[in-house]
What does this fold into?
Amino acid sequence: MVELAVAMAVLGLMTWAVSAAFGNVGPARDRERALQMGETLRETLRAFALRNGHLPCPDTDGNGWESRATTGNLRCASATGQFGWLPYRTLGLDLPADKFRATYAVFRSPDDAVPSSDADLAVQLERSNPADPVGTVGYKNVHDLIAALNNATAQTVPTPLVTRPHHTGDNGVQGAIDCTANVRANPAYWLAMPLEDRDGSGSRSDGVQATVTAATLVANASLCVQAPGTAMTSDNDDVVIVEPLGVLAGWLQARAP
It folds into this structure.
């Protein structure tokens, strides 16, 4: 009887271990898929920027298209709106499942009156050679976006701006996840994929991303996200992708005609 009891106890522990392992397979697989999708989206956004000389506007309607103005030089529907959904259809992509659908914040700093200091990455503007007349070769191209990226870098280094998209720490090497006391950097853009509601907030987005909801997209309620590489925990499985200003500028410079 004692041997049987020991055998049953061992069997129970093995069953529990196997169940726990299988229970973690789904979340881990989703997170790995989100990381792979994030890198694909990074390359898609880079290609868009190289081809068009600007980054896309956020999608504030949730229809998959960037929200654009129909008139005027300010390309986006909002002159200052920096946050929304990623405009998948503008990028030639299908909308993914909700848990993989990324929110998107892009660095914007409209200053059309002084193009040399402009750092609005979503606006196509002549910056590299303002004397170029409309229609000349190179007018409003990727070199103008590179100039905007350099302008943005000058505005945010060494002190990041909390009024522009930024990321905080990772509760590890990059310090605490604290959008007030530990603002790390302003990227050209960030993407955040929510996966599941692990913190019980009522939103798939967890942690500092949990304030990001459809109702707050236009209001720029939160331009702060946790650092890329933040470990998954019992109450946070969000995946964040950021594109540093200097990295995007260097990538574009190496491929610009």
Notes: The CA atoms of residues 198 and 235 lie 4 Å apart. The chain has a mean pLDDT of 84. The longest helix spans residues 2-52. The first strand starts at residue 83 and ends at 85.
